[in-house]
């Protein structure tokens, strides 16, 4: 029983580690080529060579190369070496969930197959979490609408109470006649 608990914890840690390597670029959840290479236990160059030999398997919605601005945004999120100090010489490729699934047909090691399974599960859990967040966002929006309505009503009640407490004094009519006229 303890072994099963330990295995479940290890799987959860691996899935969490993978989730931390999933970024949103161009509105899509993607993983960087060097992160995938590390998870698969290969050098990034080897991963990219395997992909370049099988480019027909990776259309634009499976894999794309990020542009300079996207690369800068990623660099600002985590510390990476700059291109002038021995870092990457080219812009990285990123893979969508479908691209990661396609990698299993290109990389055939046992580790690559296992990691693919973990990665696909992580993408699925993220999608499930996003669905939960959408439901939560809808409920929050409904609450905000009610609060705005309640806030407007409260403001109206406050104004009425203020007028009751401090009634606007109308100038009193003078009785009699005025000598100055």
Compact description:
With 181 residues, the chain is of the alpha+beta class.
N→C terminal distance: 105 Å
Total domain modules? 1
Question: What's the arrangement of strands in the largest beta sheet?
Answer: 1-2-4-3
Q: Averaged pLDDT, please?
A: 76
Total strands: 4
Strand residues, percent: 5-15%
Secondary structure: helix percent: 55-70%
Quaternary status: single chain
Q: Tally the helices: what do you get?
A: 6
Order of helices and strands: HEEHHEHEHH
Biggest sheet details: 4 strands, antiparallel
Radius of gyration over all CA atoms, rounded: 31 Å
**What structural category arises from helix and sheet content?**
alpha+beta
The coarse silhouette is elongated
Low-confidence stretches: 80-86
Summarize the SSE layout with pairings:
Layout: H1 2-19, E1 22-25, E2 28-32, H2 33-40, H3 44-52, E3 63-65, H4 68-77, E4 93-95, H5 97-106, H6 110-165
Antiparallel strand pairs: 1-2, 2-4, 3-4
Helix pairs in contact: 1-6, 2-3, 5-6
Structural description of this entry:
By secondary structure, the protein is an alpha+beta fold. It has one domain (2-129). Helix content is 61%, strand content 8%. It contains 6 helices and 4 strands, in the order αββααβαβαα. It has a 4-stranded antiparallel sheet. A hairpin with a 2-residue loop joins strand 1 (22-25) and strand 2. Helix 1 (2-19) crosses helix 6. The longest helix has 56 residues, at 110-165. It starts with a helix and ends in a 16-residue tail after the last helix.
